Amino acid sequence: MLARARSVALIGVDAVPVEVEVDVSPGLPSFMVVGLPDQAVSEARERVRAAVRNAGLPFPAARITVNLAPADLRKEGPLYDLPIALGLLAAQELLPAGALAGVVSAGELALDGTLRPIAGAVNLALLAAQEGLPALLPEGNAAEAALIDGVSVYGAVSLLAAVRHLTGEVRLEAAPPPEPAPAEAALLDLADLKGQTAAKRALEIALAGGHNLLLVGSPGSGKTMLARRAPGLLPPLTRAEALEVTRIHSAAGLLAARGGLVGHAPYRAPHHTVSDAGLIGGGSVPKPGEVSLAHRGVLFLDEFPEFSRKALETLRQPLEDRTVSISRARATVTYPANFQLIAAMNPCKCGHHGDPEKACTCTPAERTRYAGRLSGPLLDRLDLLVRVPRLTVEELSRAPETEGSAAVRERIAHARRRMLARQGTRNSDLAGQALRRHAPLAPGPEAFLRAAARQLSLTGRGYDRVLRVARTVADLAGSPEIREPHLAEAVTYRPRELT
Ligand SMILES: Nc1ncnc2c1ncn2[C@@H]1O[C@H](COP(=O)(O)OP(=O)(O)O)[C@@H](O)[C@H]1O
Ligand SMILES: [Mg+2]
């Protein structure tokens, strides 16, 4: 007898329908699964067999064939355990006819029959909502999936609980939408950082407009300290942005434990030893990388030149396209990656080049080599470069700063609201026609920018980046027009040769 269960496959952050067909026929006992990669098949078979038996349910001594259709679709991860097990029971008429046709299910089975959370529950719920069907998922995924409007989500702790729900023996309650994620624990305050007015100003501009920022300064000058204060300054995400971010975090399997819409702009700070797959995305079961987890938020790369050369060069694509494409044996997956980069680095290998007190011990060749780790094309994709000089002991022991994060956050939020009201996006997202329309220059300022561009030999990309930053400087000043002082400030931050 043949049974069919509905499930999904994740392609990037999109869930697409997959049908799980299970046939149980008389014959020599066997268990064949087609439509999955080899390794995953054998693992799924063993888990399903053990889980069904350990749940006290009958496992047929017959010829079992499972087909995951469509066959040409890339399917990965253990999410088919539950639909396979349910199909197996339906094929033996242990579930009411049609019980499986009206539900989308997915879940990983432990050998004792309990259900483990899977990645991508939010994405699955979005598809179920489109199809007008309820979702049957591991209990650990219920809260995140229930975020999606228009879908009933049933969370089962085990295979047995899922079966009893479908037979009507013990119906599960639909999961209520989760409470909003709790506000972050006390965030670090900008008032802790003494001096560094230029760096603070550059951070304010970068966060307001979503621009990329590079901090260059000697060890101990407060670069890391400054970057860690970014989360307390970022404006909240719009509802649409929050949903985009939540889908990515769900696809990465990061939400199961917490549930709740990701309402804060993400802040990701991977160590420089992160693998390429960890940074960009990929792996044997493809997962979004840090660049995608930082979508709509900040990616902080401390000790920037210490990242592998390959990692730094692969950053160029997402910095330009705002997405990453990961090529796999059979398909290419694309994840959103519209993050803003904050990077920090020492000016040279020993770290003291330009320091008024400590002498630099690097040879000119060493300095050139160090600066050369960041290629011209990579630097060209950054928007603001600011030097962070080390403070003297006297400066450090001064009275605390009077302006804290609250005031800066207010100015950033205000500028961001101006951008959204004018063009619906942050200034960093303006390109082509939209940039000309929303950042027009009067003849005077235009002549000024052209002269600056010639003097600095700006590329076309560099010119546009200065214009976007100037748009943000004007927005922070509450000015509808971009004036010369706004452009002049933007130009001073334009990254150029590091040596
Ligand atoms: N401007 C500053 N105001 C207050 N403390 C500072 C400042 N600069 C450095 N420090 C102190 O020095 C320590 C090291 O700063 P850090 O941000 O790690 O420097 P960097 O990342 O530039 O090497 C900080 O934990 C802080 O105690
Ligand atoms: Mg540091």
Automatic annotation (TrEMBL):
Top-level taxon: Bacteria
Pfam family name, one: Mg_chelatase
Record carries keyword Lipoprotein: no
Entry-linked NCBIfam families: YifB family Mg chelatase-like AAA ATPase
GO molecular function: ATP binding; DNA binding
Protein name: Magnesium chelatase family protein
Keyword Transport tagged: no
SUPFAM superfamilies given in the database record: P-loop containing nucleoside triphosphate hydrolases (SSF52540), Ribosomal protein S5 domain 2-like (SSF54211)
InterPro entries the record matches: AAA+_ATPase, CHLI-like, MCM_dom, Mg_chelat-rel, Mg_chelat-rel_C, Mg_chelatse_chII-like_cat_dom, P-loop_NTPase, Ribosomal_Su5_D2-typ_SF
Domain MCM C-terminal AAA(+) ATPase as annotated: residue spans: 289-388
Record-linked PANTHER family: COMPETENCE PROTEIN COMM, MAGNESIUM-CHELATASE SUBUNIT CHLI
Keyword line: ATP-binding, Nucleotide-binding
UniProt family annotation: Belongs to the Mg-chelatase subunits D/I family. ComM subfamily.
